[in-house]
Amino acid sequence: MSARDTIRSAIDGAVRLGFDRETMERSIRFTFTVMAPIIVTLATGPKNWLVYAMVSAIVAFAGDAGGPPLARLGWMAIGPLALSIGLALGALATGHLVFVFALSMLAGLAYGLVETAHPHLLLATRFFAFGVVLAGLVGAPVPVDFLAILVMLGISWLISLASDLQDGQWHPLSVPPAASIGLSLKGPAGPRVAFAIAVMLSIGAALLAAQLLGSLRPSWTCLTVLLVMRSEVVSSFRLAVERVVGTLGGVFAAVLIADVGNHRLTLFAMALAAFVRWPAQQFHNALGVFCLTLFVLLMVEIVSPDSRMTALLLHERLTDTIIGALAAVIGLAAFKLLQDATATRSS
Predict the structure, then answer these.
(1) What digits encode the pLDDT tens for the residues 37-72?
(2) How many alpha carbons lie under 13 Å from residue 336 in its C-beta half-sphere?
(3) pTM, whole model, 2 decimals?
């Protein structure tokens, strides 16, 4: 049986069990995408570039909008390109805490301004800020790290194209023309500006708290703020709670697997977490967060051979997520106050 027939058989079997075919196809493609750099490290040994390759794989996958090959590559490149620019600027600002904070907060301001707009704008602003903090406060990248981002973008693109071959045609482009991105802003400017200021202040507060607590990876704190803050306040509170709950479960599961110390079990758990990530996300956001957290933390375990450092990072993932969620909640409260004050003045 050919590889294509095997994949088709697996998908058809899952559909018969009640799974959505599109979700299963997405799960299979995501698993191949994020496990590709892990498989490479089995031959090369754990390398720091794995983190950059993995982030590139995830954001390229998130930016996949289908369509013809070149158009698809362009949309998939938006996230990795924003990440690379953030990393480069963060590296230049390394050692200058004020500049790192300023760049990160400006990225938060940009995210707040475009939060109701095109999803690729959100992807770009989120991972630009993540790149700034990762390079500026965690560790500056070296040339091979940028090469890993580029190579992983190419691999993600090829996997995306290969997944369309089973249907014999390219999946249609799922986004409007690129020229319309700037026209996708919705709602009046006043609330957007107020929300953008709230996001900017939340990122500043989150990073300050992480620094004061001696966080090793404050980039997780920054990303938490950008993933849970929405201009719709109620849904933001829900997302914050679900992210903390999902992260707690992921940390607990990662600790249990790390205690076993079996390399094959770790790889199997990573592949399983990647495969069920999208069905779990559709069922409940906290389950999706759980799967992705477990995957990321097991990757950290592979990269960090020092068991004490691994244990510290497992604990810190939860701590940083809670810091980011609390900062987001405080920012949302400030946003609500700004909204109420504006409504009072206008009435």
Answers:
(1) 888 887 777 778 888 999 999 999 999 988 889 989
(2) 13
(3) 0.85
